[in-house]
Design a protein that fits this description.
This protein has about 625 residues and is an alpha/beta fold. It folds into three domains: about 200 residues, Rossmann fold, CATH 3.40.50; about 160 residues, Rossmann fold (3-Layer(aba) Sandwich), CATH 3.40.50; about 190 residues, Rossmann fold, CATH 3.40.50. Helix content is about 35%, strand content about 20%. α8 packs across α14, α10 packs parallel to α14 and α11 runs antiparallel to α15. The longest helix has 22 residues. The N and C termini lie far apart (about 55 Å). The mean pLDDT is about 95.
């Protein structure tokens, strides 16, 4: 057997560079690159190894470990999980900074390979710089924090262990049901240790995206339910995108006359103006989708976890006779909410289920009601998005900014956002015409994802316009990757909406009976309110930046400098109290049972009444 004598780190990166995946009939590298912030735990071993393969596996430098992992996650999502990226850090804070990102990837079922440095396996220099010492268990390091947020976790304490660890990692990263983050903690002495590796270990490997077909019994039960439906609806989740099932979804809906509502992850699976598109569903949903959900008797959920924002905390689907079919590659998700499971790839499941349904089509009176609701919602959305009533001291709403940005971007543009008030408004009001045009991280609702995520999206989709929309609170949490975008010459448009604090949570605080406290800057403990110049700050990191004072000026700025390279930032002040009242659904946020304040007691009474509508059995 031919062997190659390599360090463990050299063998690892050579293996990663040899992994390919078939997409659109073409074999492409599975890993689009490596994000690296070097420290003493990875610079000598893995750093030297990455230098040797940089022509085949490029290395990118970031400014924050959590942010670079967000970029990697966004790359995977924008690639519909067909490709992924790698992140490496030193031990200690570099490693633990990525734990939040690992949780985000885990919640969203997205592939991410994390290679944090670890302590010395031989323990000769213990304790090393940044080492966490457990008083009870000498085998624990900071990297054990990744265990609960990884789909596969391993610590490499011998160089030959990667012969089994790496194929297992790839199997998880490319599996439609088990997909998620993989953590391989690399002991820093082992990174530099040499071993005689079998040469065949580094042969090019072509992975294929598996498409499991449904079980015939589950298929028959699902078809029987739908065939009797009088008010059916589809809930399209992120799995529709990952399965490349947009055409199948549209064909299914049109053939059988079933309206479609979209989750945050599923939005843009169907063009916004398709006559069967009800729009967003749930707490951040449209009136068309939520009113239909209240009446629906059979719900076909495709590729979604059905989290509380989608189901209105299990109070949205109110038809007492309603039945749920969960079409999902993961049994874990297909079995939720006492659903009728249909474990399968979304595209395969929709196409085989359609064949079983034959000539079924939902009743015309249901379709008429749906059409009327869609028309009414579009009128409400037009009003919310319109450039009216602004000026004379009144600041624009988030909805008005969204309308302006949406009107002045390409039809195939990709909008990127993550947390705060913007996702709710975007879910209702952003109009996507092209698949993948809506990129929201809302499974983990992680503030700080936005700008870093925009970088990952642009790397994955270099030919599409990428718009990052971010609030001032999220911008302040993580803005350093503007410098990374400038270094890489990535053209991003970053729209910063400054409402001077955490406006979304302030509204939630008020809505649950609380007084404004510690959310908006003016209501937080301070000696002096900060005068933050977001335009100057973005410019200092390398963006071409401007601040505008009106919606008209925003639209003009969006049309300017279309040929610039690198990031540009547009800052606009917005009203923290205005939100789109149309649409929406109840969300279970517990209100104190006891309080000296009357508004809290009133909010608790309303909360108790709302909880009575929850279906706790499922």
């Amino acid at each position: 057997m031919s062997t190659l004598r390599l360090t463990m780190a050299q063998a690892l990166v050579r293996y990663l560079a040899a992994q390919k995946i078939e997409t659109n009939g073409e074999a492409v590298p599975f890993f689009g690159g490596v994000w690296a912030i070097f420290g003493h735990g990875n610079v000598a071993g893995l750093g030297e190894a990455l230098y040797g393969v940089q022509d085949h596996l490029p290395t990118y430098r970031a400014h924050n470990e959590q942010a670079m992992a967000h970029s990697a996650i966004a790359y995977a999502k924008a690639s519909n999980r067909r490709r992924a990226m790698v992140c490496t850090t030193s031990i200690g804070p570099g490693a633990t900074n990525m734990v939040t990102a690992a949780a985000l990837a885990h919640v969203n079922r997205l592939p991410l390979l994390l290679l944090p440095g670890d302590v010395f396996a031989n323990r000769r220099p213990d304790p090393v710089l940044q080492q966490i010492e457990s008083f009870q268990d000498a085998t624990i390091s900071a990297n054990d924090c990744f265990r609960p947020v990884s789909r596969f976790w391993d610590r490499i304490t011998r160089p030959e262990q990667i012969l089994t660890a790496l194929p297992r990692a790839m199997a998880v990263l490319t599996d439609p049901a088990d997909c998620g983050p993989v953590t391989l903690a690399l002991c820093q002495d082992v990174q530099a240790e040499a071993y005689d590796y079998p040469e065949h270990f580094f042969a090019e490997t072509l992975w294929h995206f598996r498409r499991p077909r449904p079980d015939q019994q589950e298929l028959a039960r699902a078809a029987a339910l739908l065939a009797e439906a009088e008010k059916p609806m589809i809930v399209a989740g992120g799995g529709v995108h990952y399965s490349l099932a947009g055409d199948s979804l549209r064909g299914f809906a049109e053939r059988h006359g079933i309206p479609v509502a979209e989750t945050q992850a599923g939005k843009s699976a169907l063009a916004w103006d398709h006559p069967l598109n009800l729009g967003s569903l749930g707490v951040t949903g449209t009136s068309a989708a939520n009113e239909s959900a209240e009446e629906a008797d059979v719900i076909l959920a495709v590729g979604t976890r059905l989290q509380d924002f989608t189901t209105g905390s299990r109070a949205l689907f109110r038809n007492p006779a309603r039945r749920l079919i969960q079409l999902n590659t993961a049994t874990f998700d297909a079995a939720k909410h006492q659903a009728e499971p249909l474990v399968a790839d979304a595209r395969e499941g929709l196409e085989t289920l359609s064949a079983q349904l034959s000539q079924y089509r939902s009743p015309s009176d249901w379709l008429d009601a749906v059409s009327a609701r869609i028309g009414a919602w579009n009128q409400a959305a037009d009003a919310a998005r319109a450039n009216e009533g602004v000026g004379n001291g009144r600041l624009p709403s988030d909805a008005q900014v969204i309308g302006a940005v949406n009107r002045n971007t390409d039809t195939d543009a990709i909008v990127v956002c993550a947390a705060g008030g913007l996702p709710g408004e975007l879910h209702k009001l952003w109009r996507s015409s092209a698949p993948g045009g809506y990129h929201l991280e809302y499974g983990y609702s992680c503030m700080g994802y936005e700008i870093a995520g925009g970088i990952g999206v642009k790397l994955a989709q270099p030919d599409r316009e990428v718009i990052v929309m971010v609030g001032d609170g999220s911008y302040l949490m993580m803005n350093s990757e503007i410098a990374t975008a400038a270094m890489l010459g990535l053209r991003l448009t970053i729209v910063v909406l400054d409402n001077r604090g955490f406006g979304c949570i302030n509204r939630l605080q008020r809505g649950t009976g609380g007084e404004s406290f510690n959310n908006l800057l003016q209501h937080a403990r301070h000696e002096k309110l900060p005068e933050i110049d977001f335009r100057a700050h973005a410019a200092s990191l390398g963006a071409q930046a401007v601040k505008v004072d009106s919606i008209d000026a925003l639209e003009a700025a969006l049309q300017m400098h279309q040929d610039i390279e690198g990031p540009r930032a547009i800052v606009i002040d917005t009203d923290p109290m205005i939100t789109t009242e149309a649409g929406g659904a109840w969300w279970d946020v517990a209100v104190p049972e006891v309080s000296e304040r009357g508004p809290v007691r009133e909010a608790h009474a309303a909360y108790t009444a709302a909880r009575a509508r929850q279906r706790l059995a499922d």
